[in-house]
Amino acid sequence: MAYLDSAATSQKPQAVLDAVLAYLTTGNANAARGTYPWANRTTTRIEQARDRLRRFLDDPAPQRSGVHFVSGTTEGLRAVARDWLAPQLRDGDEVIVPFADHAANNAPWLEVAELLRRQGASIGVRAMPYDAAHDYDVGRLAAMINDRTRLIAATHVHHVYGNDMNVHRLRVAAGPTVPICLDAAQGVGHLPLSTATTDVDFVVFSGHKAMALPGTGAIWARNQRGPAYATTGWNGSPNTSGIISLVAALDWLDAAGLDRVARWNTALGARLTDGLRMLSNIEVLGCQSSLAADAPTQQRQGIVAFRHRDIGSNDLGFILAAHGLLVRADGHCQGDQGEKTASVRVSMHVYNTVAEVDRLLSVLGELDHD
Ligand code: PLP
């Protein structure tokens, strides 16, 4: 089997499994409750996990930022919208939402606008502008910013087109005061992300897409624009073994080197894109080339989505699975401005190989000749 669905969730390195097994068999206890040694140790490990994530994200002001563990990006973005944005919003305020990105980065902002509407306040939900290459159109974005803009929601790497959304360019467009919330579900664990050089206010991601266990993720909050992020209400028991798996995953990724990880995934993505373009019945979505390294916009990562002109994408998903090629075939939870018909998405990570890409191309090539 070739697992080609890492954008949905990653496989887990042995080091991550070992760390979880060791914790669960030698010191499993709840955090922030008991006072006996196992409980204290768990509490300390959760605190240390926050610092580990700050280091992983190259946090320039770790004494000020906040780290909150969640089950994944969807829960994290919803928490930012509900706990941080909603209490600040007033009638006439505006938010900018990327409607061609993942629905998880649309729904929370729409829900908050609806909540405010029921309270009698009208919130302008404005659509993030894109250019022809599915990157953000920073020129048009800059023209949309005004003194009522309260948040820009953006995405690090697109989950269907696979392109790096060049979010380092957003701050110039946004100006110094508008907060930016980044959905980094397909970025964290795939390519370096420095919060010292990329001036966003929130980084939200899914640990389970970055080598950690299911049910893991985090919100990193810079806490410099607007109030410091704090969750509302009582928080129950944390996902202790999940958070421990996340620390092991970050250690593993740093040891592997995120530059190397990104180079590998980008190379696989380029090989697949270029191979698919040779097949007359295949239409690649998004950028048609694998973008040169010196292009003004950055390269496609290890995600490539495509359609066959004659075979429906769902059928193609089953055909590929019968050949041991595990891809995703559907609409990929894209927002309202997304693709209207299903596609096949191949998403790769460090455990995927050139041979797997070539095997996929050869199976598709045979279909091309039928
Ligand atoms: N945002 C993007 C860009 C994604 O690719 C995903 C993945 O499904 C999500 C958000 C939602 O992540 P999760 O299902 O872990 O909440």
Following the backbone from N to C, one meets helices and strands in this order, namely EHHEHEHEHEHEEEHHEEHEEEH
Report the portion of residues in β strands: 5-15%
Average pLDDT metric: 95
Q: Give a quick account of the main beta sheet: strands, pairing sense, barrel closure.
A: 7 strands, mixed
Structural class: alpha/beta
Named once each, the bound ligands are: pyridoxal-5'-phosphate
By DSSP, the count of extended strands is: 13
- Examine the coordinates and then state which fold CATH places here, giving the name of the CATH topology of the largest domain: Aspartate Aminotransferase, domain 2
Entry summary:
With 370 residues, the chain is of the alpha/beta class. It has helices spanning 14-26, 37-56, 73-85, 107-118, 138-144, 170-174, 240-256, 258-277, 313-322, 354-369; strands at 2-3, 66-70, 94-97, 124-127, 149-155, 180-183, 202-206, 217-221, 282-284, 303-308, 325-326, 328-330, 343-347.
